[in-house]
Design goal:
Strand content: 5-15%
Bound molecules: zinc ion
Radius of gyration: 19 Å
Strand order of the largest sheet: 4-5-13-10-11-12
Structural class: alpha/beta
Largest sheet: 6 strands, mixed
Number of strands: 13
Number of helices: 11
Length: about 375
C-alpha cells in the first residue's frame, strides 16, 4: 500500500509526505524511513501469490502491485549447510540465504526494484548513484526496465565484470579516483547539476523497503524468527531494513517480541562499524585506507551508521572483523563443501561464524548466513589471491 508518512530516523516529529520526492531529513540530514497505514497481511493470503518479494506488497510502497518495476527479485532459497555446521561443530540448524539467485546476481536488486518503482511513480526522469559494484548493476537493470536513464559513479579499481554489467544494461558509468564515498560526492554533484535523482544508499527512503523483505522471507520460510543472522556489512541497508521488518512483522501479528541476534561482519581491511561497536560509539568514523577483496564491504563511511549500531545493540548482537585469509577460507567452505555460490561477502559470514564459535559465543539457532551475491561478479580473480 502507499505509505502514510516518511519519518525521520533521528526525530520522529520530522515527518514528510510520501507524495513528494524526498532525500534526507532537511532538519538534521538523517535518513528517512517509510511508515504505512495500519495494514493487514495474513500469512495464509500468501499461498497463491508468485514467488517474488512483491508477494508482501501490502508492506511495500505501491498502490497496486502491477506498478512494481520487477525482474522477479527476492524469494531466494534458504540452503541448509550441514557439512559446514559439522565442520564448525555447531549442532543447531545452519542455513545460507542465497541472494546470488536474484536478478543481477546480488541482494541489491531488492532495494533497486523498490527505489526505481517509487522514483517512477514520483515522476523521476533520470537516476544516478555511486556504487561499490553490485548496486550499480542492479540500478542499471531496473532503470532499463523502467525506461529511465541511469548514471553510475564507481571507484576506478572496481572489477571490470561489474562495470561491464552496468554498461551492457545501458547505464553511463563514470570511474572515480578513490572509494565509494568519493564516488558518492561525484554522484551528488551530478544530481545537483542535472536534476537526476540520487538513489545512493539511505539518501532516499525506498531501498531499505526492498531490503527488508529478506526478513519477511526468513520468517515465512522458517515459520519462526531466526535465532542469529550473520550479515556482511557495507552500507548497512540490509541490517536496517531487516530490523525495521521484524517490528512490522510483530505489528502484523506474524511474530511476538522475539528478535534475532544480528551479527555485522566486516573485513579487517575496512571495519568502521566493528570499531565503533567495540568502542561503544553511536556513530562510526571514516576507516582510512580501506581495502578488501569483498568489494561490497569496502565502504569506509556509512550514512546509516547510527541505525546499524543501534540495531546491533538492541538485538543483543555483535560486530566482527575477519581477516582476508579467513574470508577466502569461508568462501571456499561454502562453495566446495556445500555448493553454494558464495562470494567474498558470503565467505566473510562463514569466517565470522567460525570466529564466534571458537570464542564460545552464544548463538541461538537457527543461524542464517547471508550470501549477498554471486562469486562470478568479481571474476576473474588473480591466481595468487
Ligand atoms: Zn530529522
Amino acid at each position: 500500500v502507499l505509505p502514510s508518512d516518511l519519518v525521520c530516523s533521528r526525530d520522529p516529529e520530522h515527518r514528510f509526505s510520501p507524495a513528494q520526492l524526498h532525500t534526507l531529513c532537511p532538519h538534521d540530514a538523517a535518513p528517512l524511513l517509510v511508515r504505512y497505514p495500519p495494514a493487514s497481511l495474513r500469512r495464509d493470503a500468501l499461498a497463491s501469490r508468485p514467488w517474488s518479494m512483491w508477494r508482501y506488497h501490502e508492506m511495500l510502497p505501491v498502490e497496486n502491485v502491477t506498478e512494481a518495476i520487477t525482474l522477479g527479485e527476492g524469494a531466494t532459497p534458504l540452503i541448509p549447510l550441514p557439512r559446514l555446521a559439522a565442520k564448525l561443530r555447531f549442532d543447531g540448524a545452519l542455513y545460507a540465504k542465497d541472494e546470488a539467485q536474484n536478478p543481477t546476481a546480488s541482494f541489491k536488486s531488492r532495494g533497486m526494484s523498490v527505489a526505481v518503482t517509487a522514483a517512477r511513480r514520483l515522476g523521476v526522469r533520470a537516476l544516478v548513484a555511486p556504487s561499490a559494484g553490485n548496486a550499480g548493476g542492479a540500478l542499471a537493470a531496473y532503470g532499463a526496465r523502467a525506461g529511465i536513464p541511469v548514471r553510475v559513479f564507481v571507484p576506478r579499481d572496481t572489477p571490470p565484470t561489474l562495470v561491464e554489467e552496468m554498461r551492457t544494461f545501458g547505464a553511463g558509468v563514470e570511474l572515480v579516483d578513490g572509494l565509494i564515498d568519493d564516488a558518492g560526492r561525484s554522484a551528488a554533484a551530478y544530481a545537483a547539476e542535472t536534476g537526476a535523482f540520487n538513489v545512493a544508499t539511505l539518501r532516499e527512503p525506498y531501498r531499505v523497503e526492498g531490503k527488508k523483505t529478506m526478513a519477511y522471507e526468513l520468517v515465512e520460510r522458517l515459520g519462526e524468527v531466526p535465532g542469529t543472522i550473520v550479515y556482511g556489512t557495507g552500507g548497512g541497508t540490509g541490517v536496517i531494513g531487516m530490523w525495521k521488518a521484524f517490528a512490522e512483522l510483530e505489528a502484523l501479528g506474524w511474530i511476538g517480541s522475539q528478535r534475532p541476534k544480528l551479527v555485522s561482519v566486516q573485513s579487517e581491511g575496512c571495519a568502521p562499524i566493528v570499531r565503533a561497536f567495540e568502542s561503544g560509539a553511536q556513530t562510526a568514523t571514516r576507516f582510512e585506507n580501506a581495502s578488501t577483496a569483498a568489494w561490497g564491504m569496502r565502504v569506509p563511511t556509512a550514512l546509516g551508521d547510527r541505525l546499524i549500531l543501534a540495531a546491533l545493540r538492541a538485538s543483543g548482537g555483535t560486530a566482527v572483523a575477519v581477516s582476508e585469509a579467513s574470508i577466502r577460507d569461508g568462501m571456499h567452505a561454502l562453495r566446495a563443501l556445500e555448493g553454494a555460490d558464495a562470494s567474498e561477502e558470503g565467505g566473510a559470514t562463514a569466517a565470522a561464524l567460525q570466529h564466534l564459535i571458537a570464542q564460545g559465543a552464544a548463538l541461538p539457532p537457527p543461524i542464517v548466513l547471508f550470501n549477498t551475491g554471486s562469486a562470478l561478479k568479481y571474476a576473474p580473480r588473480a591466481q595468487d589471491s
